[in-house]
Amino acid sequence: MFKEEGAGFLLIFKIFNMETIVVGIIALAVGVFISYFLWDKVLVSKSQKIIKEAETEGEVIRKQKELLAKEKFLQLKSEYEKFINEKGAKVLQAEQRVIQKEVLLSQKIEDVQRKRKEVEAFQVNLKIQTEKVEMKRIELERQRNEHIRKLEKISGLSSEDAKSQLLDSLKAEAKTSAMAYINLSIEEAKMTASKEAKRIIIQTIQRVASEAAVENSVTVFHIENDEIKGRIIGREGRNIRALEAATGVEIIVDDTPEAIVLSSFDPLRREIARLALHRLITDGRVHPARIEEIVKKVRHQVDEEMIETGKRTTIDLGIHGLHPEIIHLIGKMKYRSSYGQNLLHHSRETANLCAVMASELGLNPQLAKRAGLLHDIGKISDENPEISHAILGMNIAERYKEKPEICNAIGSHHDEIEMTNLLSPIVQACDAISGARPGARREVAESYAKRLKDLETLALSYPGVLKTYAIQAGRELRVIVGSEKISDKEAETLSNDLARKIQDELTYPGQIRITVIRETRAVSYAK
Questions:
Q1: Which of 81, 170, 341, 452 has a 20 to 30 A CA-CA distance from 318?
Q2: What is the largest CA-CA distance in the chain?
Q3: In degrees rounded to 5, what are phi and psi of residue 153?
Q4: Is residue 432 within 8 Å of 489, Cβ to Cβ?
């Protein structure tokens, strides 16, 4: 019974439950439908709202775009109008220029036509005048011929005879006048030439500063104390002998306090000895090998100084374009003398005198100055001593491409060749002025130097002789020979031969001692 009731209750519950589910489903469906319907209305309203907003915004954007388009159009329109206006202005200007040119062209055409008419009228008038002139010329010619016939009839001479007689008389009169004028000019020239020449020479001398000759054959070398004298002399005098042999200068070390005397007739040797002594004393090492090394370096230094002196001399005188070898010879003039007068000072003085005199005579002063500087250059060169210094200087100038007038002035300043230009007598006169003025030269010094030079030259003429030095004022001649060329016996023979030849060929006071030096050296190096 209970089972049946329970089954019935379960059945009722199931039935009731199914109904509830169905009702729920239906209610849910109805809710969904209602919700969809309501949502559709919401969406429609929202979409309409969005559409309205979009339409409003689109309208705003459209209006903005229309405004921008209008502004752009107005801008383009204004630019186009501006461009059109500019083009129009240019076209208008071009039209105005064309109109002006047309007006000018019309005026020119009118001027040309007017001038053409004037020229045509002038040509017509000229033709008429020409015809009149020709008629007058024919009439004048006729009258002239008639007058000539009348004159010939009256004088009994033809026109050609009359011309001939007239020309002959005029020639004779002109010749007489010319000869009188020439004679008068020559007389005046003779009267004034000597006076004018003296005036030019005096003015030239007054405008040049002069120096007096200083006769000097010794140089005093000052030292700090007398102890240095012993180092210079050396052990048994070997240092002083080496120094004298290397320089050719007599070195006198006596009781004179703080002084050593260098004696030589050659200023170049004295200068080399002075500089070498200064270097040796400064260095402190004094021995024969060091002496020879220092003297060699000093010779090179003095050679460079001579080149610098030559350059400075040419710059001071304003002379350019000289060959380097000639500049070197000019520098060597500093250490040469001519009759006691320094050769470089003499040449510079002659150059300045030549320039002044050439200016007074209307010639080229630079060319004259160049010739005056180089006129004694042959005294410096040691080549070919048999010919005179003037010819030797001319040969040197020709070798280094100097101008022909300068070469002639150098070679003819002692009348050894013919003068071919006006520079030559000027150089000769200025050389004489520089050498002949009071205090310029001293014959004694020059003859003394020449005697010493002749002594050395005579000894050098023997084979095997390397160096010669005249020392002690020419009372001793030292001859250095090569040990491999001359033996001891030959050295003695050479000394006797030199003594006899000096007695026969040279004139000198007192006696001369001939010393032939022959030595053998052995040199090796410790490494």
A1: 341
A2: 217
A3: -65, -40
A4: no
